[in-house]
Specification:
Layout (H helix, E strand, L loop, with lengths): L1 H46 L1 H5 L23 H5 L7 E6 L7 E4 L5 E4 L3 E4 L5 H12 L9 E7 L3 E7 L5 E5 L17 H7 L7 E10 L7 E5 L1 H7 L13 E6 L5 H7 L9 E7 L5 E5 L5 H7 L13 E6 L5 E6 L20 E4 L3 H25 L2
Parallel strand pairs: 6-10, 11-15
Antiparallel strand pairs: 1-2, 1-5, 3-4, 6-7, 8-9, 8-10, 11-12, 13-14, 13-15
Length: 388
């Protein structure tokens, strides 16, 4: 009976002991498996630290979204298409290494002077290429691959050329549009219309349907980009206002035939000159130089000068004098009809520095002649009257 009680008391004790022994065995097995897994992972991590780091997201400040250089409307387009050169200012941020971070200017010889690295040539590189070069350089001084955020802080002006039918062809330096932002680039590459504005605007004979951009991309043959600004005017196709790159040349051809209706519309676009100066002299109310919008007709210029003097102008024989670009002079006698629509014969469109001469009519000439003769006699009669 006593033995039976001992057995009943000892059974729970034996059960608890068995449970603890089983838990220790499970723990031992888990420990062995854990060491085996670590033994496989650690050598791989030692051989390829980059692969291990890729499993973890980078800090938000270090994530830079690369963009396609063919998207001129994207503010981040500078990262993919911009070529670094002297005059650019960049901002380098190395995560958790403030000694290597800061703003740096690219010197005239195309180099950067960086802490720990020294002089580094960056001329001709894109922002993405420079970022890779900095990661290689700084990896010598840190224990893990450096996390770098690189931004173009202040871009230099780009140098472009324009030739053909603009009023001031030549080479121009154009600044980028927009303002720097703390987190992303909001600069915009200058566009074709901005360059045309800077060059004085298109002439009356410019062929806006046939504009070419010649761009050198490193190969022997330049890349040729066709632009049709008439699509921009007619349909608002903003893709025709192509963004420019440093070293681009824009060629604006001459129209073989000018449509007067289109010419009037082109005179109102923002890449046409604001005003042109013409001379209106002779029998008008306010003779002299007048400023009129581009592609203004002769009738409008005469009205801007106050119109003809009553009865004194030879309306049927107004003379238009034009100095051509080749140095020749064109004279045209026009019978003015203020009701006429713009046309080459009765109401031509004006060009800068045109001269309009409103001659005196025959009646006005005769009256002026009589006035010249009888005015002295009138004065003599007045003198004789005093001695009567």
């Amino acid at each position: 009976m006593i033995s039976c009680q001992i057995t009943q008391v000892g059974f729970p004790f034996l059960t608890l002991t068995s449970f603890l022994t089983r838990e220790k065995r499970i723990q031992s097995v888990f420990t062995v498996v854990l060491f085996a897994v670590l033994a496989d992972i650690l050598p791989m991590a030692a051989q390829s630290p980059t692969n291990v780091l890729r499993e973890y997201p980078l800090p938000a400040a270090a994530q830079v979204k690369e963009s396609s250089p063919t998207a001129p409307g994207n503010p981040a387009d500078l990262l993919g298409a911009y070529i670094l050169d002297s005059g650019d200012r960049i901002k380098i941020e190395v995560f958790n290494v403030p000694e290597l971070s800061g703003e740096f200017d690219i010197s005239v010889d195309g180099t950067l002077n960086l802490p720990w690295v020294g002089t580094l040539s960056v001329q001709g590189q894109t922002v993405s290429e420079l970022k890779k070069a900095l990661q290689e350089q700084y990896s010598q001084f840190v224990n893990r691959p450096p996390v770098i955020n690189l931004r173009l802080l202040i871009p230099r002006p780009i140098r472009v050329a324009v030739a053909g039918e603009v009023y001031r062809p030549g080479t121009y330096l154009i600044d980028f549009g927009g303002e720097p932002n703390r987190t992303k680039e909001v600069y915009r590459f200058p566009t074709v219309t901005q360059l045309i504005q800077k060059a004085g605007g298109i002439t009356q004979v410019a062929n806006v349907r046939n504009i070419q951009i010649r761009r050198f991309t490193g190969s022997n043959q330049p890349q040729v980009i066709d632009v049709d600004l008439w699509k921009l005017i007619q349909a608002g196709d903003i893709a025709q206002d192509v963004s420019l790159r440093d070293g681009d040349t824009i060629m604006i051809s001459t129209a073989s035939q000018v449509d007067l209706g289109e010419a009037v519309r082109l005179g109102r676009v923002n890449f046409a000159p604001d005003k042109i100066n013409v001379q209106v002299v002779g029998e008008v109310v306010t003779p002299g130089s007048v400023s009129v919008p581009p592609n203004t007709s002769m009738n409008q210029a005469i009205l801007t000068a106050g119109g003809f003097k009553n009865g004194r102008a030879r309306v049927k024989a107004v003379e238009l004098i034009r100095l051509n670009p080749d140095g020749t002079v064109k004279r045209q006698t026009i019978s003015v009809n203020f009701a006429a629509q713009p046309n080459d014969l009765a109401n031509p469109l004006l060009q800068p520095n045109d001269v309009i001469i409103a001659k005196r009519s025959a009646t006005a000439s005769l009256l002026d002649t009589f006035g010249t003769i009888f005015t002295p006699l009138s004065a003599l009669t007045s003198i004789l009257y005093l001695f009567r």
